[in-house]
Each structure stands twice: as C-alpha cells, then as structure tokens.
Design brief:
Blueprint (H helix, E strand, L loop, with lengths): L1 E7 L2 E6 L9 E11 L1 H8 L15 E8 L11 E4 L2 E2 L5 H4 L10 E3 L6 E3 L6 E5 L3 E3 L6 H5 L1 H14 L8 E4 L3 H12 L5 E5 L2 H9 L5 E4 L5 H8 L6 E4 L4 H9 L6 E4 L12 H7 L2 E4 L5 H12 L9 E6 L3 H8 L6 E5 L1
Parallel strand pairs: 7-8, 11-12, 11-14, 12-13, 14-15, 15-16, 17-18
Antiparallel strand pairs: 1-2, 3-4, 3-9, 3-18, 4-5, 5-10, 6-7
Length: about 350
C-alpha cells in the first residue's frame, strides 16, 4: 500500500509498504478521507519533538472496513466507519469513570499523547481496535465523518467541560479549524452574542460566514478588551482559547469578569502565564481545559452531524490525494487555508 512515512523531521516520504493485518480484536480500515491536523504538521516540521521514527501521521480518518480480526462482532467487511484515534483498555479506573483519554495503557493511531503511537491514516489502510470505530451515518460524507474527532473535541470543550448554557455570551479566540468548530457548536447550543477574535482577515470572515459569529474583532487592535465589553457590557460568560499562542491565553485571562468560565483549549506548548491570585479568587470564575476525545464525545459529535445541527465539512478549504501529500504540507504552512483533507 501507499503510505506517507515520516523518517525524520522534514523528511516525509511516500513509500510502498505491506498492508497491515488485524489481530484478534482489531479491524483493517481502507482509508477514504483523513483530516490534516496541526499536530500532524508540527510533527512533520519538527515543531513538536515527541516523535519516534518511522511514523505514519494522520489521526482524523473515516473509511471502509476491509478485514476484521477474530472476535470482532460489531463490524464487518464493507461497513463505512469513523475512527477514533485514541485507543483504550476499557477496564482501568479512568476508563470505567468515562475518561478513556486518561487510560493507563492508551495508544493512538497517528496522533500524539500516549507513549504507544501506532501507524496512522496518511496511508491507504490502517489497523485499529474495534472499540475505536463508529458506524458512519449514511447521510454524512466521508469528509464530514473524518472530522468527527476535531468536532468531538469542540463539543467536549464547550459543552461537557465548560458547560455552556443557552443564551451564554461566548468569546472564541482563534478561528482556524478548531475555533470554527467551537463557534459552530456554541451556535448550535444556543449562544447569545458570539464574538470571534483573530488577527487574520480571512479567519474573521470565516468566523461569520462559516462559524456563525455575531461579531468579530481584530486581535491586533490595541483595545480588544474594550471592544469585547462594548459588545457585552457585562462581560463574557465563557471564553474559549482556540488559537495556540501564549498571547491568546493572556488575552483570555484579561477578558474575565466575575463568574466567567474560561477554557484553555488551543495551547499545547509548555509556556507560562501569570495569574493574580487575589483577583482570581474574587472573580470566582472557573478554568477548564480540554484535550483528546472519548467515546461519549465522538458519539455526541456524530449526533450533531447526523441531525444537521453542525456540518464540519464547511471548514474544508483544500483536498489532496495521498500521492500529493507534499503539496498538502505546503498548504498547511499557508495562512489562507482552513481544514486540509487527504483522500484515497
């Protein structure tokens, strides 16, 4: 099969390698579509260094079951499926509590986080555990289905962790792919005023036309906080940082009023920020964060799509066949793009 194999930082090669075979509780999936995540790009370019070579990236796939191992009962050859990238044991205390992304023996297919990193979906076929699969609803395209994982992250951050309520005034800092999904989830959940903050004219326009933002603010402005409070005089109920840079986290902290909930979602680098202890005490807000996904979050994202409440396919700006993966990498480094998809 054809696979994009990362052999060193900035050394991604298209190789012809053997098709993997599923074991007892595993499934072989023929990949149809896979999202190109920023964490994939960071691994390829050496921006994140926790990578063991050789490595096949790609952790946002959907496809068709090609073969099943002995003992797999709920999936059969020919089933259209959505793949959760994070595998879990199901029996450790974290899994039993519903936090399978904390699993003591977790693995990931093409992703980041656990020590056990398995070949991902920038390939024609991928093997994963049967418990990581979900049946694709017939009314979903494979591109939309492949975006279940990032959409599930947005649902998990905005709804499950930060417990957004109907009518809440919400600010989302950073409106790339994940920020747009956070806006879409908040909109579907009944947000009141929905403000998007980004330094990119392109991203701010997308925040309105795709994300459903009611207002946009240029992050480069000198009076961002004043603009937010001009729109929401009482201050935001929820602020979601979906940008990544530490300055976005600092802005989020500055936007708080009493009772504001704030979610550190986008930053994954180990950078520091300061809090005024007394002010934080008296503001009586609540800090949350969200990483990874769970079966609950994946199923919730599928429900949002199946019922027509959120269509993540709208954030797709570029599509490339696997054979043109290097063009996709170049596009990932450009400002005028949203979600890049790889297909077979």
């Amino acid at each position: 099969m054809l696979a994009a194999v990362l052999k060193n930082f900035n050394q991604l090669e298209l190789d012809d390698i053997p098709v993997p075979q599923p074991k007892h509780d595993e499934v072989l999936v023929k990949i149809v579509s896979c999202g190109f995540c920023a964490t994939d790009y960071k691994a390829i370019k050496g921006i994140r260094r926790n990578v063991a070579f050789p490595f096949i990236p790609g952790h946002e796939p959907a496809g068709i079951v090609a073969a099943v191992g002995n003992g797999v009962r709920h999936f059969k050859e020919g089933d259209a499926v959505i793949c959760q990238p994070s595998g879990y044991c199901g029996v450790c205390p974290s899994c039993r509590e519903g936090n399978s992304h904390y699993c003591e023996t977790a693995y990931t297919t093409g992703g980041d986080g656990p020590e056990d990193v398995r070949p991902g979906a920038f390939a024609e076929y991928m093997v994963t555990g049967a418990s990581c699969l979900f049946h694709k609803p017939a009314n979903l395209s494979f591109d939309a289905a492949a975006l279940t994982e990032p959409l599930s992250g947005a649902w998990k951050g905005v709804i499950q962790k930060s417990e957004m309520n109907v009518g809440d005034d919400v600010v989302v800092i950073g409106t790339g792919g994940i920020g747009l999904l956070c806006l879409m989830v908040a909109k579907a959940a009944g947000a009141g005023r929905l403000i998007a903050i980004d330094a990119s004219d392109y991203a701010r326009q997308n925040a309105i036309t795709i994300g459903g933002a009611t207002h946009v603010i240029d992050a480069r402005a000198a009076n961002v906080k004043q603009q937010v409070y001009d729109i929401i005089p009482g201050g935001p109920d929820l602020v979601v940082e979906a940008a990544g840079p530490i300055d976005a986290v600092k802005l989020m902290i500055d936007l708080r009023r009493r009772g504001t909930k704030w979610n550190i979602f986008g930053i994954t680098t180990h950078e520091k920020f300061e809090l005024d202890g007394g002010l934080t005490h008296f503001l009586e807000g609540r800090m949350d964060a969200s990483f990874g996904t769970t079966p609950l979050a994946m199923q919730s994202a599928i429900r949002l799509m199946e019922r027509g409440l959120v269509n993540p396919e709208r954030i797709v700006s570029h599509r490339y066949p696997l054979a043109k993966i290097h063009e996709a990498v170049e596009t990932m480094g450009q400002p005028g793009r949203n979600k890049v998809m790889i297909y077979n």
